[in-house]
Amino acid sequence: MIIVMHPDARQADIAAVEAKIRAHGLDVHISRGTERTLIGAVGDERKLDPEMFDPLPGVERSLHILKPYKLVAREWHKASTVIDVAGVKIGGDDVQVIGGPCSVETPPQMDAAAAAVAAAGARLMRGGAFKPRTSPYAFQGKGVEGLTMLKDAAGKHGLPIVTELMDVRMLDTFLAQGVDVIQIGTRNMQNFDLLKEVGKVDVPVILKRGMSATIAEWLMAAEYVAAGGNHKIILCERGIRTFETAYRNVLDVTAVPVLKKETHLPVIVDPSHAGGKAWMVPALSCAAVAAGADGLLIEVHPCPTEAWCDADQALTPAEFAALMTRLDAVARAVGRTLGASSRPAAADVETAFA
Ligand code: PEP
Ligand code: MN
Known about the structure:
The chain is built from twelve helices and 15 strands. It is an alpha/beta fold and 354 residues long. Helix 3 (107-119) runs parallel beside helix 11 (317-333). It is elongated, with a radius of gyration of 21 Å.
């Protein structure tokens, strides 16, 4: 059972709910978010009933959640969660695009990438400073220096930054460097210690789908983050492993509507790591937005042929700008808008064509 406390519930109200749950022999899990506290009763729920909690001071409502994942389930939170990333809203009417290179390489590369991302109208920038590479001999990322390069380049265009955290020991550095969104990559989706640590901070998290994870496993991983008190979680479908070898991964478009039904969290799609080839990215991006994705994570490099990592799948600045225009049309076709900093508002375009 989950007991949703009022945003202004007092500590004494929370303690009273906790005492009541314990008196019935169940365990208590308290998730203190920045907006509200959620109290989970863990154990034989048949002993509890919403009527026991609803009249208590500070309780907004209580309910039994049938799913194994609780805090992230849409069952108790019918409205879609909108996450504010330094003023950019993810999960609302706007479809947000996060663009940038696979990895941070040099200041000129990052400056050119940031300029391209901003010019195309995307609102957030990505770039890996710590790279999870299959080979220990491959480029491992620029590390802390890379975080600075990303922050500096993106900052010149007012773009919040998204970057991958692989090791809990780097979390404090990420916070100190002002990382706006912490990305947990596919290889760490079930790194439970890492999930617990990012669950303790007040920074939005993009949780990528494990390459062989079921939707239930993925949502349980998100539950780890939420259970720690960080409710700002964005799920990212990035393709799954199948028997098919014609592309890097299979983009599971079906996951988008299924997740939207199962969870209130925003869902975005990474078409770059799904297809693995730049030419596939536009079609997969359009499919994702048409299916209801709240955003896209797209690799863009000023000169893809010279990229130090994932060269085959990066878009050029021109390809990215052209894709943004197509996505604008797809977003409108499904009743959304493309969150873009420098694109004309829908109303202006209609006037222009009137
Ligand atoms: C990435 O986005 O840079 C990345 C490594 O992706 P994934 O974890 O999905 O492979
Ligand atoms: Mn990559």
